[in-house]
Amino acid sequence: MRKDVPCRVSFGRMSLGAAIAAFAVGLVFLPQVAAAQWVRDTLPEPPAGKTWKLVWHDEFDGETLDADKWEIPDNRRRDGWWSPKAVSLDGKGHLVIKTFKEGDRYYDACVRTRGKFEHAQGFYVARIRLQKQPGHWCAFWLYNTSVNKVGNEGRDGTEIDIMEKPWLDDRVQQTLHWDGYGKDHRSKGNVAVVPGVIKGFHTFALWWKDDEYVFYVDGKETWRTSAGGVCQVPLYVKLSDEIGPWAGDIRKAQLPDEFVVDYVRVYDLVDRRP
User: At 205, is the pLDDT very low, low, confident or very high (cuts 50, 70, 90)?
Assistant: First the structure.
């Protein structure tokens, strides 16, 4: 593994996105004190002659979610309701998806890049602080309706769950789904045990290769698989919270609860410059 792009540091009025771009082409010089503040993504060692290039990201700076990057559905979902009113930015560079009860209805949310950013092979990473109460679970996943196609396994569409967290312990669920969700549905999953994952921020990542998927938590590989054949069509990014019995009894939760996302980044392999 090797270290690469930083997590968060202040550049005054310059946004982190602009700073990353500027730093990449040598336009930003970091003094020694500032450089010490950089917290870096851990990226896999690239193949010979290749390097990683940041191709899409959101640092969740500003006051409102960037509508050019994300959409927020408003519909019933399992035992709750996905609603824009459960989505906010905290002004400190974080996306907050809240779970709460209003009247007899439970609310949570999903944000997705459908129609705005859809991508295939690459390295996907998000830095997330997980929820703390039972009855609901957060997820970082890739999806497209092509997952409903049947007949070519997952090559023509796979739901890739980089992280789902229905348990309030050290377990993290990672799963692939393909061939729809009916009688032909197939899936393959892994439960990674990550001590302390329920506390603080952690990174959850996927290296989607041509011939396999490699999953990571905090820069450490947790699962490697090519189950279903590897998806060859673009998928979009989803960050969601869902309410249902898989995660326990929502009636026992002390609400509101939330999960918090520091950033989402997508990298591609490109030729290394001589």
Answer: very high
